[in-house]
Amino acid sequence: MDSPNYNLGQVPGVSVHFFPSLDEIQEEWANTMPADNLFFQPAYLLTLEKAPPTGVKFGYLIFRKNGKNIGGAILQVQYFKANQNINYQEEAAIGFFGTLSRFFRNLVASKVEFYTIICGNMMLTGEYGFAFKKNALSPKEELKALDEGLSFAQQQYEQKGIPIAGNLLKDFFHNNHEYSNQLTNIGYHEFQVQPNMILPKVNRWKDFDHYLSDVTSKYRVRYRRARKKAGELKRVELSESEIIEKQALMHNMYNEVAENSGFNLVNLNKEYLIELKRNLGNRFKVYGYFQGDSFVGFNSTIANGTELEAHFLGFVKKVNKESQLYLNMLYDILEEGIVGGFHDIVFARTAMEIKSSLGAQGYDMNCYLKHQNSFTNKLLPSILSVLKPEKDWVPRNPFKEITSGF
Fold first, then answer.
1. What CA–CA distance (Å, rounded) separates 285 from 367?
2. pLDDT the model gives residue 403
């Protein structure tokens, strides 16, 4: 397939090729990107193209050296408007200064809006933006190639009438200092949103009772109380036809929950869950929660190699309050991970404290933003500091002995 391409100036011998879709390059892309990571593979990415979040456009970069593919990058283009994407919770402060603080933050947010290329995946938390084959380039060369490739992609979008003002590189683990230093050197500004909540080494437990034996009595009591409050709630894996039947209800439930998150980049496509089921089969599971005949909630998981990814969920707020439905969902995902023999469970962002009460640890992740206007780019650190959501949570450790690391 012919594609717009460009020989990189900063990394001699490397060219970048732009594709607006994976449809015609599925095999080439699959052979270039990590085979053991579902989120880099066409089965998942084409699902996004078929059921995209509202207003999102896609693109892909393939990097070649001496005529051979050495890496690629996933691009998502969205019109970012801070006062819609960032949902401020009530300030703890009240009175004049609390009101002034809210006013100032909302005023600044209302002025921050532009089309941006996101290198990464807005539907996931993690390092799913780009990948290069081992030893094809140095880390410094990878980032130079990526930055120049993004500039080339901007030209392709602008030719289609989409003026790109900024690049957002999404989700690098905080301890990835090599990338961090290089990106700030080429004009990107680092910021954090919320940590990625991951429960590592889940396969240390042979079953859920084994897990319970490792937690303190306080958290065993908490577990039993949650299960008691669940009462007659039933959890049932939904078939493809049942997902179709309930997708409108699930979409409404998801939207209610999403409104309470502090930073929401996407508006979920109503068809997304069913398309995932069609494309991923048993690697994607949706579970419905019922009170009698009433459908009151759902959650979903994706098996990605040795990781179990907790994906989208939703519930009836009244039932959640009465039955601790959300906490019970987390316990169910934990049990699924243990029974399935996964190494890690990725619980992702939001609700950090309750997830930590199960043993998940918060891994800080950095994002990097660069505005194309040099003057605006210099102002970004100040703007990002104003827009930064609150980090108001207390990490918990339910275990008798402290555990850490992947």
1. 29
2. 56
